[in-house]
Specification:
By secondary structure, the protein is α+β, with helices and mostly antiparallel strands. It has helices at 2-39, 74-77, 88-98, 126-131, 135-145, 147-156, 181-192, 200-209, 263-276; strands spanning 42-44, 56-63, 68-72, 211-215, 218-229, 232-244, 247-256. The longest helix has 38 residues, at 2-39.
C-alpha cells in the first residue's frame, strides 16, 4: 500500500514537471515570436510624408517574407491612441470564443433608434456589422460578454494598455483603451498565424469577415476606425493585411488632427502608400 502511494506521488511529480515544461516551451515560443517581430530591421519611409499633409500620423508596414518593417514617423508609430472601431476585430473574437456569438451570422435586431448612418438602422449580423462598422451591434455584444470576461481576454491577448475602465460599451471609443500602430501590426500578424488565445476556427472566421476585396490574386483585408464628437473627426485608423504573390504584408495607419482624421481618410492614405510602394 505504501509503495502504491509512493508510485502515485512519483507519477504526480512527473506530470507536474511535464506540464511545467510544456508551459515553458509555449512561453518561449510566444516571447521569441514577439521579440523576432520587434527586432526585425526597419527602414524609414520619409518619402511618404506628403500623404500625411495636414495630419499628425504614421504608417507601419511589416513585410513578412523580407522580415522587415517600413515606418513613417517612428515616434507616432509607438504612440498609443484610442482604437475606435478597429477594436471590432477583437470584440468579434471574444464574442465568438465566449459563445456570445455562435458564428458570424448571428442576427441582432435593430432597436428602432434612428442613427446618423442609414445602414445602421436595420438588423445586422456580425459579418454585416463589422463590414458597416455598426457601433450599436458591437456595444450589444460587448454588454453580453461583460466586463469580467472582456478583461480576461484583453489581458490574455494582451491588447494595448488593457484598460477597459471607460465602461463596457464605451472603452474602445475615445475612452480608456489605447493601442499603438506597431502593436496593431503585431496583433494582426499573430491573428494570421493562429497565435492569439482563441480557437483556430474563430480566428479563421474573423479573418474571413474583414476581407474587403479578393480579386486578381490579391486579398485585401482591414478595418477602419474613427474618433469623432458631433461630426468632428480627430482620430482615424486603418489596419489591415494584404496578401499577394505568396507574400503577406501587415500594416496600420493612424491620423490625428483637429478635424478630418477619419477612418475613410486613413484607408485612402494606406492604399495610396501601398500603391506607391508597388505592393497594391
Amino acid at each position: 500500500m505504501q509503495y502504491g502511494k509512493i508510485i502515485i506521488l512519483c507519477l504526480e511529480e512527473v506530470l507536474v514537471l511535464i506540464l511545467r515544461r510544456v508551459c515553458l516551451v509555449f512561453c518561449i515560443v510566444f516571447l521569441f515570436s514577439v521579440h523576432h517581430l520587434q527586432a526585425a530591421p526597419t527602414q524609414q519611409l520619409d518619402k511618404v510624408a506628403p500623404f500625411f499633409t495636414g495630419f499628425q500620423g504614421t504608417f507601419v508596414l511589416y513585410d513578412e517574407k523580407a522580415d522587415q518593417y517600413s515606418i513613417f514617423n517612428q515616434v507616432q508609430s509607438e504612440k498609443r491612441l484610442t482604437p475606435c472601431s478597429t477594436f471590432k476585430i477583437y470584440n468579434s473574437l471574444i464574442a465568438l470564443e465566449t459563445g456570445v456569438a455562435p458564428d458570424e451570422n448571428m442576427v441582432l435586431p435593430w432597436d428602432g433608434q434612428q442613427r446618423f448612418l442609414p445602414i445602421w438602422n436595420q438588423d445586422h449580423t456580425m459579418a454585416s456589422g463589422i463590414k458597416n462598422s455598426v457601433v450599436w451591434y458591437y456595444q450589444e455584444i460587448a454588454s453580453r460578454i461583460g466586463p469580467e470576461r472582456m478583461q480576461k481576454y484583453i489581458d490574455a491577448i494582451p491588447y494595448g494598455n488593457r484598460d477597459i475602465s471607460g465602461g463596457i460599451t464605451q472603452f474602445w471609443l475615445r475612452s480608456s483603451l489605447k493601442i499603438s500602430a506597431k502593436e496593431q501590426v503585431e496583433l494582426l500578424r499573430r491573428l494570421y498565424h493562429d497565435q492569439l488565445p482563441f480557437s483556430t476556427a474563430n480566428m479563421a472566421i474573423v479573418r474571413k469577415i474583414i476581407i474587403q476585396s479578393d480579386e486578381n490574386d490579391v486579398v485585401f483585408s482591414g478595418k477602419t476606425g474613427a474618433g469623432s464628437v458631433e461630426g468632428v473627426y480627430s482620430v482615424g485608423w486603418f489596419v489591415g493585411v494584404l496578401e499577394k504573390d505568396n507574400r503577406r504584408y501587415y500594416f496600420a495607419t493612424n491620423l490625428e488632427a483637429v478635424d478630418g482624421a477619419s477612418g475613410v481618410k486613413a484607408r485612402a492614405i494606406s492604399t495610396d502608400i501601398l500603391k506607391s510602394l508597388n505592393i497594391l
